[in-house]
Design a protein that fits this description.
380 residues, Rossmann fold, 7-stranded parallel sheet, two-stranded parallel sheet, 12 helices, 13 strands, 37% helix
Length: 380
């Protein structure tokens, strides 16, 4: 298979590039290097199955060029960070919504088999229910959260209007190898690791009792692989199991292939009109169409105080002076969700997702990687 990975020079994207190349697939990496780094992918330049395109998803022509000949899309490109979106909502909107729409259009026109995209746990907003279940969300708490929810709405409309297969993966606090420890909007784990390795006190926003479902990168790689390659039949079998069959909004997913209308045999006035849903199924004889979102996490719950202690203990194995560092406490951060813990039942049932790395194991592996990569001078 030939896979387009947008944001492929970033943290998650570059790990996906490595993984799918190791599986023998062709990989096209599209990245504008705004938040990604060429160092993350340059070791693949000699691989004939790897092609890097430096470009921006806000340019439709660039998206069309990158997707040419591809079978699947793993759309990771986005402008992350809640604080950044609060400071500059316009740019976040342009990248995360305009760019996302461009990729949907390019994918539709290229007739890719499946469009898998990075959604976000920020979509749950002010919902207080734990664990988080895909079908129950609250109001967004930041411009970033709004953009990620709009992505889900667009994907659903494109699936039902154009007969696409769209899968959104709501990532929960992903961490691990290649997550950037530097910069103004570094995520909490690499930021704190950087501070500790320089014998400085990390700042905990609030009282440290906010909690997260920290998810190790290898679990996210597995989720993307399952989302891209899970067969139509297995997905539909999982949907039957997960949803009640009397839910009208899902009945169209449960049509047998024999009930679909063969390509070319329909009564549209204009053959160039988009495919549409009918009582007999879709207008595609060789595929089902659907749009679903899945929580991608481990299903755990770690407070920020416990996160600090875990990172300090792991890094102390390499530098004993780290063990005496205590955190500082600052104000709560605007736009932060107090608690975030996922139900992963839906992903397990439909995608066959079974995360292998809990947060404790991930903290240990990530700490070792950061120390080996940056030593004691990661933010100097």
């Amino acid at each position: 298979m030939k896979i387009l990975i947008t944001g492929g020079a970033g943290f998650i994207g570059s790990n996906l590039c490595d993984h799918f190349l190791s599986k023998g697939h062709e990989v096209v990496c599209l990245d504008n290097l705004a938040t990604g780094f060429e160092n993350n992918i340059k070791h693949n330049y000699s691989d004939p199955k790897f092609n890097f395109i430096e470009g921006d998803i806000r340019n439709l022509a660039t998206c069309q060029e990158a997707i040419s000949g591809c079978d699947l899309v793993a759309h990771q490109a986005a402008l992350g960070s809640v604080p950044r979106s609060i400071k500059d909502p316009a740019t976040t909107n342009q990248v995360n919504i305009d760019g996302f729409l461009n990729m949907l259009i390019a994918s539709r026109d290229a007739k890719v088999k499946r469009f898998v995209y990075a959604a976000s746990s920020s979509t749950y907003g002010d919902s207080k229910k734990l664990p988080k279940v895909e079908e129950e969300i609250g109001k967004p708490l930041s411009p970033y959260a709004i953009t990620k929810y709009v992505n889900e709405l667009y994907a659903d409309v494109f699936a039902k209007t154009y007969g696409m297969q769209c899968i959104g993966l709501r990532y929960f606090n992903v961490f691990g190898k290649r997550q950037d420890p530097n910069g103004a909007y570094a995520a909490v784990i690499p930021l704190w690791v950087s501070k500790l390795m320089n014998l400085k006190s990390p700042v905990i926003n609030g009282d440290g009792n906010y909690s997260r479902d920290f998810t190790f990168i290898d679990n996210v790689i597995e989720a993307n692989e399952k989302a891209l390659f899970r067969s139509d039949e297995d997905i539909l079998k999982g949907l039957r199991e997960y949803y009640n069959l009397d839910l009208d909004e899902h009945k169209y997913l449960l049509q047998d292939k024999s009930s679909t209308i063969p390509a070319g045999r329909h009564d549209e006035k204009d053959k160039n009109d988009p495919p549409r849903r009918t009582k007999r199924g879709t207008l595609f004889a060789d595929t089902y169409f659907f749009s679903e979102v899945f929580n991608i996490a481990y299903g755990g719950n770690t407070t920020l105080n416990n996160l600090f202690m875990a990172l300090r203990n792991n890094l102390s194995k390499f530098e004993k002076n780290i063990s005496s560092i205590e955190p500082e406490y600052g104000p709560f951060r605007v736009g932060d969700i107090p608690h975030s813990q996922a139900s992963i039942l839906k992903a397990q049932t439909i995608l066959g997702y079974e995360p292998k790395f809990d947060a404790k194991t991930g903290f240990s592996m990530a700490s070792e990687w950061y120390f080996n990569e940056f030593g004691m001078s990661s933010d100097e």
